[in-house]
């Protein structure tokens, strides 16, 4: 029962980074995978639909389109997110609201849109990708940390509310991972290598994770081997948070 054969899966934010690695891993293990992203999908191995997570109507339309293509939804993975590095006193209301909208309200919209199919599945599972920054803050990321901490609690709340529908909801909290989003946090700095080493020094394991390492954790929590796991928060962060 370790594979995903017969499972219908939607990965939100699956065009790149952790999301793309997760989509590929789940497909390799037998799942039928669809991807929702605001960017066009370069990998045509998956069914896909474009949507901006701040647009509830577009999210609903994309979810409905893929659910019909796949014949339902058993697993939803929320990987999409944005970062904002700035001193809190300099963050505008608009910038703050946008980070919260994408990183917290966005997953709420996709979970809500997928709910009818997850309920009908009888084995529904959601994995929301938060961040170690939602467990232990980092400097100049107040909006990001707040949104990601909120996503942890959203996941726990949904796990509590939707257990009666046989829908499991769990959270994965990555540390630094080799993705385009991460690279933008240190490349272009006055001393990029010093900034990269500063980031590595936050982690007891002393390195940056690969996307596939996060995909393994997500795939485990979404799949049948974790059938009795719900409401949990799994830090995959090299020991930074010791959560």
Automatic annotation (TrEMBL):
Family that this chain belongs to: Belongs to the short-chain dehydrogenases/reductases (SDR) family.
InterPro entries to which the protein is assigned, alphabetical: NAD(P)-bd_dom_sf, Sc_DH/Rdtase_CS, SDR_fam
Organism: Paracoccus shanxieyensis
PANTHER family for this protein: OXIDOREDUCTASE, SHORT-CHAIN DEHYDROGENASES/REDUCTASES FAMILY MEMBER
A GO BP entry: fatty acid elongation
Pfam families named in the record: adh_short_C2
Name by which UniProt lists this protein: SDR family oxidoreductase
PROSITE patterns linked to this entry: ADH_SHORT
Single Gene Ontology MF annotation: oxidoreductase activity, acting on the CH-OH group of donors, NAD or NADP as acceptor
């Amino acid at each position: 029962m370790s594979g995903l054969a017969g499972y219908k899966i939607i990965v939100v934010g699956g065009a790149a980074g952790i999301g793309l690695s997760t989509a590929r891993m789940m497909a390799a293990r037998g799942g039928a995978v669809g991807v929702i992203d605001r960017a066009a999908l370069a990998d045509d191995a998956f069914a896909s639909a474009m949507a901006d997570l701040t647009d509830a109507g577009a999210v609903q339309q994309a979810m409905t389109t893929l659910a019909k293509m796949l014949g339902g939804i058993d697993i939803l993975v929320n990987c999409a997110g944005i970062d904002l590095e700035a001193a809190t006193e300099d963050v505008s209301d608009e910038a703050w609201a946008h980070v919260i909208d994408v990183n917290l309200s966005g997953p709420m919209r996709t979970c809500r849109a997928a709910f009818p199919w997850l309920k009908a599945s009888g084995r529904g599972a959601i994995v929301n990708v938060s961040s170690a920054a939602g467990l232990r803050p980092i400097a100049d990321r107040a909006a990001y940390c707040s949104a990601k901490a909120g996503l942890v609690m959203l996941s726990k709340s949904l796990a509590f509310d939707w257990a009666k529908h046989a829908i499991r909801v769990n959270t994965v909290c990555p540390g630094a991972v080799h993705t385009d989003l991460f690279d933008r946090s240190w490349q272009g700095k006055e001393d990029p290598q010093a900034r990269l080493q500063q980031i590595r020094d936050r982690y007891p394991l002393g390195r940056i994770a690969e996307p596939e390492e996060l995909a393994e954790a997500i795939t485990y929590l979404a799949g049948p081997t974790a059938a009795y796991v719900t409401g949990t928060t799994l830090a995959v962060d090299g020991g930074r948070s010791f959560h």
